[in-house]
Every structure is written in structure tokens, then in C-alpha cells.
Amino acid sequence: MKIIPNIMSGIQLTGHGDLDKLVLRNDIPVPNIGPRDVLIKVSAAGVNNTDINTRTAWYSKSEGNSGDSSWSGGPIQFPRIQGADVCGRVVAFGEQVDKRILNERVLVEPCIREAGGSTLELPWYFGSECDGGFAEYTVVAARHAYQITRPFSDVGLASFPCSYSTAENMLTRAKVTATDTVLVTGASGGVGSAVIQLTKARDAKVIAITSESKVADILSLGANKTLDRNENIVQALGKNSVDVVIDLVAGSQWPDHLEVLKPFGRYAAAGAIAGPLVELDVRTLYLKDLSLFGCTVLGEEVFGNLIKRIEAEQIKPLVSKTFAISQIAEAQQQFELKKHIGKLVIDLSIVN
């Protein structure tokens, strides 16, 4: 094994609050590995909504209460190294791990079911309940480190884990097949653009809601049709017109998402960037025999299936911009502006 340093550089989230809570440190201890773990030298790590939501305690349903501020509803332990999207190489491994994994390039499954050698009662989110990838090194159970051989760049590969597994999970839960028409909100973001690609990989039709300036890019990803995000979707599509809604936005237009669903339609949600509180007419739900899915924890087969799609090159990376790790605040600011298409990625090879 290579000689591993004792300390490393990384970004620590020191508490809930503004961007000043993100602190670059050069004296963070390199994490220890257990018998079933691997140590990964991080090459790149993507920026996600959950990074910002965790920092701002957005997940907390009670004003002023940070005790339920993680995605799983529990408290965050500070300082915390965030970063759920990790691409890197294995540089050390525990004694119960197959030694052939050494030096392999891997992607980390962001929804983890094992940590510290124990199976978790409730899955953790990488970079939330445990330290993630915004540092030179990170540790994870070997079962959550998937070898990857496709000739994509490390930055490109780092765009996949969180967004694409979220998208794959939503499409899996909603049982999307080639006969379906799928409406996706927030189509230009990391998850939304992944939904388009993964829907097309299933040979289904996709209608994407986006802004006018992004229409050409969204169509180039494979969308069959686009709608402006300010457009009345019921008027544009008609009632009972789509089989599945994949929603990342919620907000005031949420009731229309159920109106455009056909009877026995399926709705899946994994975000609420336009606002988490919505109005539900329960009559619409039961009279149309709709199925609603909340999607956070990945199905156990989802990430493995995603890796297969990457290896088969059924999907491609979509990176908008890269940043040095010291530019994490700028990266999060740009992320919140929602002007990009695809992913913003921290490239740890950039020295700044």
C-alpha cells in the first residue's frame, strides 16, 4: 500500500448557517479504516442540493430546531465534511476487503447501509450522517465503493452518484417502462437532466419543464418536448395526459402535477426547490387511483443498476463547471442561482 499522510486538506461544515460555516482546513486527520472499509484518495466531488439544505438546516420542519436537520430527520454532528458525489482511487483497505480493489477507480454509493463495520438500522447519506468527499481522503465500507472502467474523466464520473442514483431510484419506484410518457420538473438541474437521460434509456417519452434559455440543451439531452416553467401545464398538456410525474420542484403549481396524470398514474418526488408546502385535493388522489412516492433512500439494487448503465455508456456526464476545493462557497452560490445545466463539481486536482 502507498504511504498515507496523517493529515489532509478539506472543507469542514462547522455548523448551520451561511457560507462562513464552510471552513477550509489543512490539518484534518486522515480517517482511519476498519476491517471492511476502503480509504479513497478523492479526485472529484459534485455539489448537491443536500449540501446547501444541510448547511442551512432546511430539512428541519420546526423553526429554530436544528435537531432534525439532516435528510434522515436526525441531528448533524459538527464539524462535518460534506460531499456525497465521490470519484477517486482506493489507496488502502481493511483486512476483510478483497485486495484486488487497491488502486481501482471507484464511485461511492451515496446512500450507505454500513458504517464502522456495522449494518445501519436506517441508511445514512454520505456527507451528512458521516463525512463525505470534500477532502483529500474519505473512507467508506467497501460494499459501497463501485469499480468503474469507462473512460470518462474523474470530474465527469463525479457528476453521476447522487443525481443519477436519485433519478434512477425515482424511475424505478415509479416503474417507468417504454410505454410511458414522463413529465419531469426542474429538468436542467443535476437530477432533472439525469431523469431525461435515464428515461430515454428506458425508451420512454419525456416532457421536460425548464426555462426558455435552456430549451436547446434540454432537447439535445433527449427530451421529446419542453414546457416553460411559468407555463400552465394543464392548459399545455391537458388533463390525464401523462403516465408519470417526476417532481423536484413542488411549490404552488404542485396540484397541476396530479391533474395531468392519467388515472392510475404515478408521482415521485425527491425535492421541493420551489417550496415544500403544497395543497392536495385528496379527491384527485383517490378518484384517479394515483400512486405517490417519496424517494430518498435508494433501493438496494439502484446504484448497481446505475453503474451498469454507466459502463454500457447509456448515459453521459453533464458537467457545467468545475471549482477548486477552496472555491466551495462560490460553487454553492452558483448552485443556488440555478443558471447551470447539469452538475457543478469540485476538482481536487485544481490547486488554488
What does this structure look like?
With 352 residues, the chain is an alpha/beta fold. It has two domains: 7-160 and 317-347, Medium-chain alcohol dehydrogenases, catalytic domain (Quinone Oxidoreductase, Chain A, domain 1); 162-294, NAD(P)-binding Rossmann-like Domain (Rossmann fold). It is 23% helix and 29% strand. The protein has helices at 49-55, 154-157, 161-173, 190-201, 215-221, 233-237, 254-259, 282-287, 302-311, 328-337; strands spanning 7-13, 22-29, 37-46, 85-93, 105-108, 111-115, 118-125, 137-141, 145-147, 181-184, 205-210, 225-228, 242-247, 261-269, 291-294, 319-323, 343-347. The strands form four sheets. Strands 3, 4, 5, 8, 9, 16 and 17 form a seven-stranded mixed β-sheet that branches. Strands 12-11-10-13-14-15 form a six-stranded parallel β-sheet. The chain has a two-stranded antiparallel sheet with strand order 1-2. β14 (261-269), α8 and β15 form a beta-alpha-beta unit. α3 (161-173) crosses α4 and α3 crosses α9. The protein is globular. The model has no long low-confidence stretch (mean pLDDT 94).
Summarize the structure.
This protein is an alpha/beta fold and 352 residues long. The protein is built from 10 helices and 17 strands. The mean pLDDT is 94.
Q: Mean of the pLDDT scores?
A: 94
CATH superfamily of the largest domain: Medium-chain alcohol dehydrogenases, catalytic domain
Distance between the termini: 29 Å
Classify the oligomer: single chain
Largest sheet: 7 strands, mixed
Helix content: 10-25%
